[in-house]
Amino acid sequence: MKCTVCRGEALLDLRRHNAAFCAEHLTRFCRDQVRRAIEDFRMVAPGERVLVAVSGGKDSLALWHLLRSLDIDCDGFHVGLGIGEYSDASTRVTRSFAEERGLRLLECDLRSRYGTDVPSAAAVSRRAPCSACGLSKRHLFDAAALEGGYDAVATGHNLDDEAAVLFGNVLHWHTEYLGRQSPVLPARDGFPRKIKPLVRLSEREMAAYCIVNGIDYQVDECPMAAGNRHLRYKEQLAELELASPGAKAAFYFGFLREAADRFREAPGESGDGGPVPCERCGAPCSGGICAFCRLLERAGAPMAEVDDAPVAVPVTFRREPSGGAP
Ligand code: AMP
Ligand code: FES
Ligand code: ZN
Ligand code: ZN
Asked: For the whole model, what pTM was predicted?
């Protein structure tokens, strides 16, 4: 198999692009795809600061690496979820990535900051573990970005993730979620902008990017997510992609182009009076106490004692002066 660009030995074929790449041209391809996503969806303006949510998995570490290689001013933010050895290993790999490259990493450890963790919060909530976990992460990403004055929060959701979420939302006609399914959600009502710069790249490409760029990542999947619906949709779409290369991208980008606008809520259409600050933590919410604080309360977390502490604390500082390339 030959590289489409240089005719050298290729290490990855991309059937949906009818191409194959060597290490150097795969790296360039990934960078071009991220640049294009950022431009097409106007994710980041010159001079803006981005907080990258880094789990320690291949996608978010590759994302941080890629954004830096595009000279975007960004720091990492990692949440310690307290899911046993899985979380410990994720934190270790995230810290090493930042330390080896002299990057600034902020952290929030659920147990030390709030006195609870995902398994305990999931046990008391009547939600699936991933739902309590997702709620906590979204809350903390927003809080950390606002606290640190960042313009946007970037997550490592890739094409496979977004296509699977879309598939689930279409299958069940969750129209309110379809209206919010976009690679960029503008800042509003006290929430920072959310961006997904990897939407043009697949999981397989991100794994290959990490390997050729010497990025060590957490290979294990979250043990609490095993068997969930999202993973099933991913497997089903992977089968479809195998039979029809490009089907996933056609489905997802076709939706954005042809249908997404039809599901968007017009400003003010939600009918409520807009968000008000949570009585406990001050985060924007629909009234009273926000969902995250309610979850903490049910989990018996002694949040009141640490109410004024920062959400995100730096664990790694940028070397002075920084060495340039990531
Ligand atoms: P997931 O919700 O596990 O599919 O992860 C989606 C994205 O959320 C990842 O690509 C990261 O950008 C972010 N993320 C997930 N887990 C964490 C974490 N523990 N700390 C920081 N960011 C995370
Ligand atoms: Fe959140 Fe697994 S990472 S439940
Ligand atoms: Zn090449
Ligand atoms: Zn709150």
From this structure: 0.94
